[in-house]
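Lecture 7, part 2: worked example. A protein chain together with zinc ion.
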Amino acid sequence: MPTTPKPATPTVVSQQQAVLNSLPFSDTQDFEDANRGLVGRRQPNAVTDAHGTVVWDNDTYSFLDGDAPDTVNPSLWRQSKLNVAEGLFEVVPGIYQVRGMDLSNTSIIEGDEGVIVIDTLLTNETGAAALALYREHRGDRPVKAIVYTHSHADHYGGTKGFISTADVDSGAVKIFAPEGFVEHSIVENVYAGTAMNRRAAYMFGAALARGPQGQVGAGLGQTLSTGEVSFVPPTDIISTTGQEVTVDGVRMIFQMAPGTEAPSELLLYLPDFKALCTAEDATHTLHNTLTLRGAVVRDPHAWAHYLTETIDLFGGDVEVAFASHHWPTWGKERVVRFLQDQRDIYAYLHDQTLRMLNKGLTGPEIAEEIQLPPALENAWNARGYYGSVSHNVKAIYQRYLGWFDGNPAHLWEHTPVERAKRYAKLAGGVDALVTNAREAFDAGDFRWAAEVANHAVFAEPDHAAAREVLADTYEQLGYGAENGTWRDFYLAGAMELRDGQFGTPTETNAPDVIANLTPEMLFDALAIQVNGPEAWDENLSIDVVLTDADTRYRVRLSNGALTYSAAAQEGDADATITGTRSALPALAAGSPDALAAAGLEVTNPSVLGRLVAVLDPGDKNFAIVTP
Ligand SMILES: [Zn+2]
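Predicted complex, written out as structure tokens:
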């Protein structure tokens, strides 16, 4: 039986009131824009998979109505009310968007006979439902092309809901993607995928109950759908800004934006519609320089630079901007101001962080010290619903200076558990820590209560009162958070402390992704699973011969490290695996049966067995708020 959530404390209630008094809630332009052009809705909204399991249901957010309750930051409440507006919308005649059917949007451009789809949502089920909603209102037009704007799964995972791989193989459907798309989409989901997916479960609050005391939205969209993620590789790679492509009579001009919100990303302009697709580089939130699920730190300097280029290239002509999240912005003047605000917030955070770090301030100090110009503070699209000023500036510090803040006290700290034990001793025991944490909680100093109670839980994980005060504290921090992902992180932490671990509800390292690993990526994926100490004494080599690619790799395990080379090698390997490139992903399963089923021949299978024996895959259920 899940524990009942608790009400907001007076501290949080007055904090919510202060937000109401300080932000321009009377500006309701976003509500007009989010509902403009509605063509039709899917009702009821629930989308199910082949087994009848619900993978998306926007109706569960119907509580998002009226004024914010005490348990939700009014600014986040406002953003969630905007994000739940769902349906098929006309952006301009010939351009449609399905919004509120997943975390992301799909945009559909009508050509001479068919349509071009920009981004395909996260899972096949929501993708198919979105296409069906479009066709219900606009007719049974065939999909002629798909554009992936960038290498994140919520923009390509639903592709098999729109088309089949046979459509691509026959040449009937072209798929365009920015240079580096395949490498980055796979690398991000596979190398650190287990950890990212477990942390994403916190970030998007997929296991939380929805409601005023639970999940209310993730700022960028409401949450992740939980269907099947597909991966259909692109047929055409876009690599140059200004490159123009016409499909089905629709002209598209591409702008490359690598290293911005994703390592591989593009924007595109549709000159015949005077419409700009900003992908995920200009949306109605301050985005992440480092997402809380974890990633390589993004480059806000490049991000600002590319948005300047967007304005230079298209700002003189554009009449509407739409993106793969949130609602469009209409009118040249408003579009340009929107792009300028978005550009300036990334440039400002970047430059001010560097200015302050050069004065010796550390990440947490910059996060407290930095002030936004009032115009950006009051621009709804620049507020931190997904990224935040606080975590973005720490990420910028990390990008330039790394994890070490230069203070030798932090160079060789004890682990969290060892520190916690020592703090408990210093305080006079775990009970004393708990008393201290409860006092801080009662005084409304939740940040300090979290630090003290966290030491108590890490010193003695089964201490019921320690877990309780920490859960209560995270809950209040969640209620007060303007950022959707902060709220989810705090409430997920409270939930796991109270009710036990919920694991990893959505996984983006799906079979389709594994099937598209290149041989090198596959060897890397195996290498990061090798249990070093167990493999110290192993010394083996395996040749992998790809009959259809005329390639031969020598894979070696020595000193606990798995390495590989495609160059000619001396002597014979201990074993040889022979087969086609497309069969090779069976290696990920490791078992001789899986290899045989895929048609891979193995000499000396015991050598492969020795490799498989030292593989140590990730833990989808690892602890976060307890040791
Ligand atoms: Zn996205």
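The radius of gyration is 26 Å. The chain is about 40% helix and 15% strand. Keep this in mind for problem set question 3.
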